[in-house]
Design a protein that fits this description.
The protein is of the alpha+beta class and 121 residues long. The protein is 32% helix and 17% strand. The protein starts with 20 loop residues before the first strand and ends with a strand.
């Protein structure tokens, strides 16, 4: 069984799902419609994590692994310095899952990869 273990550190507070996305009114041919967008803090968090993932320099064997494996398990451990008793960690994992998924899909070029392949998080 192939396993990839990565330790990622962030300088900022991990983005909560409550502040990950926002909704604004956009216009198409003069007609308003709701449009979702990622918040500035979510985008900064993603850039920080993506830079660390890019530093791994995963080779073709990992790309083939991500391309050919149909089910993945992802383990996330949060180490919090403050607010441990007031933090809902299940609320923070979506930003990390989306970032890892985008990294594998976009940066590694595994166009068949998406978060539906995670059988367990």
């Amino acid at each position: 069984m192939k396993e990839l273990n990565v330790i990622i550190k962030t300088k900022s507070k991990i983005v909560s799902i409550n502040s990950l996305y926002g909704v604004k009114i956009a216009y198409n041919a003069g007609r308003p419609y709701p449009q979702m967008y990622r918040s500035a803090s979510a985008m900064a968090f993603e850039r920080e994590i993506r830079d660390q993932l890019l530093a791994l320099k995963l080779g073709q064997d990992w790309i083939d692994f991500f391309r050919n494996t149909r089910s993945f398990s992802m383990t996330v451990n949060f180490i919090l310095r403050t607010g441990i008793s007031r933090r809902d960690v299940s609320n923070m994992d979506k930003a990390l899952i989306d970032t890892v998924t985008r990294f594998i899909h976009d940066d590694l070029g595994v166009d068949t990869f998406d978060d539906s392949l995670f059988a367990d998080v």
